Amino acid sequence: MLKWQQYPVSKIVRSCSQFPAILKEIPDYPKKLYFKGKLDIKKSHTLAIIGSRRFTAYGKQVAENLIAGLAGYDIIIVSGLALGIDSIAHRVALQNKLTTWAVIGRGIDKVYPATHERLACEIVENSGAVITEEEAGTPAEPFRFPKRNRIIAGLSEAVLVIEAAERSGTLITANQALGYGRDVLAVPQNIFNLNGKGTNWLISQGAKLVQSPNDILQELGIEAQNPKLKDLTNLSPLEKKIFEAISREEKSSDELSRKLKIKPEEANQYLMKMLLAGIVKRQTNGKFLVKIYN
Fold it and tell me: Which of 151-160, 175-184, 257-266 has maximum average pLDDT?
């Protein structure tokens, strides 16, 4: 017997006290939910993270750094267990000890895609949940995914779009979220990245531009902790040197590369990572400074 079959299935209807109140705010919320794991919001904030199945290295790096920057906060990461950004969001949430919920578009008896069965098991085993409104035995069919997406949007206070093409299921979910009165956040993309045209369009239409975890925390109404206390223990040796070098005096990436005797592209790579983690900030003159000193 597959390991997935060993987990018990729970069922809740709209009248159950356990039924997420936030989901009842949308007009077309499901009459029932089936799930494996723990479906308990309590006082947690919920953030959906969605994006392209055909993600880029940039999209993966952004997702990893933004989610890592949310570690230690009471936030549940919601996504769809799909290939690409969805599965990255779930995995990085687990790595950073954040609860994560996966909403699937088929019956709870099987995982879709099947290659993510192990990931689904890890979600359940780490106090998360795999959720569906479909009866056991219901196959994964194309028309069920927009239905699944409305639940992702409905369960979330805000929806963060990492990457999206001009015409994509990701944009459909973002539009559903807007229709439900949810906040939509988006990461800016290279204008030559076809997978980024959708996110840039969302920003042009008024979506919250996200460049760091602090942007997400602000949107959720969470007061950011001092990054010196929260993030610095996980810095690599080189990141610690960069932190020390710009902790009191702002420096450009070129100045930093000369001081630390590293390649400019390497300095830029690490500065971007620390920028996304909310540890450093870019000044108006283009130089960098540790955020906690301002």
Answer: 151-160
Domain with residue 258: its CATH number is: 1.10.10.10
* Whether 19 and 97 share a structural domain: yes
Task: Examine the domain organization and report whether 137 and 261 are in the same domain.
Answer: no
Q: How far apart are CA 74 and CA 229, in angstroms?
A: 16
Same domain (yes/no): 95, 241: no
Residue-wise pLDDT for 218-272, tens only, equals 999 998 765 544 456 678 889 888 888 887 788 999 999 999 999 988 888 888 8
Nearest CA among 124, 101, 119 for reference residue 45: 101
Q: Are 197 and 161 in contact (CB under 8 A)?
A: no
Secondary structure of 223-258 as H, E, C letters: CCCCHHHHCHHHCCHHHHHHHHHCCCCCECHHHHHH
Residues 119 and 146 in one domain: yes
Query: Quick check: helix, strand or coil at residue 160?
Result: strand
Cβ neighbors of 252 (< 8 A, separation 6 or more) are 286, 287, 288
Calpha distance 220→227 (Å, rounded): 18
What pTM value is reported for the model? 0.78
pLDDT averaged over every residue in the chain: 88
Run of H or E including 103: strand 100-103
Tokens of 293: 């000193």
Q: Which domain holds residue 243?
A: 227-293
Upper half-sphere CA count for residue 270 (Cβ side, 13 Å) = 22
Instruction: Give the pLDDT confidence score for residue 281 in this predicted structure.
Output: 80
Q: How many CA atoms lie within 13 A of 173 on its CB side?
A: 37
- Residue that the structure tokens 């239905």 belong to: 147
Same-domain check for residues 150 and 242? no
